Amino acid sequence: MKCTSRLLFALVACSSQVFAQAYPNRAVRMVVPYSAGGGTDIVARAVAQKLNETWGQPVIVDNRVGASGTIGADMVTKAPADGYTLLMASPAEIAVNHHLYKVGYNPEKDFAPITLVAITPLVVAVYPGLPVKNIQEFVALARDKPGTMGFATPGTGSTQHLTGEMLMAAAGIKLVHIPYKGAGQSIPDVMGGQVPVGIYGLLTISQQAKAGKLRVLAVTTPKRSSSAPDWPTLAESGFPGFDTSLWFGLLAPAATPKEIIGKIHADVVRVLKQPEVAERIASQGADIVGNTPAEFAAFIAAESAKYASIIRQAGVKLD
Fold first, then answer.
1. What is the mean pLDDT of the segment spanning 279-290?
2. With 148 labelled, which of 9, 137, 173, 238 sits at a CA distance of 20 to 30 A?
């Protein structure tokens, strides 16, 4: 019986290795749960193009839009776990949405993390006429006028919104959340002073900041962004440990063989080191990561716990 068990195990292990060596032998689909042209899409296409060249097989970016990313994510969880359907994800569909409403999957059980591809900071930006030059002055002003200053975000439950809630809790201030239907709609109002503060992705307002139409007070990641090294972090501005971001990570359906995950991981990390890929991702204000599957899994768990805590403490509810 023991010999038979060993033989069976050896055969399974051998077949998995052969399968991994043969992968991919046909087109691979990389699902992006957002529209073409956005940050997630641009990062996905930069990686997919080079994987296409590496593998000698088409890597097709498939935009499946809707429900804050959950439609595309859910589709990937239901795909065959063979490595031929992947997800380029962001915080919303993996670490946030399931704490706000019911989704058709469990982000930590229904996916096999491959690697965190890149991270881009969020920024706290203000109307240039606001009499503050840094985050400390902003906090002092907000404390003098509790509940009267609005902050703009792309919507309730967005990473930007939850960052604002986290900042209010850390600083002991009260702002009024003003959700918009996308970041672009709020920018003119913040530039014009109708809403004094906005929380955005770094790239979203970089041109306005450079032109002096918005003033960036701080970025939200623990380290300064390589794309904007002069902008201080919240962590170094009196809020140690403050850490939120927009990030892009690659995942597969949960039961995908480890050998396949390992091959994809190795090839993606290799691709991320190529200068043209690094430059294209950097154009999105993002810093490349390329960590291990285990590290990415731990990162997802930490992100999920962080946003669950913010949502609970702030009492965030969708209208």
1. 91
2. 238
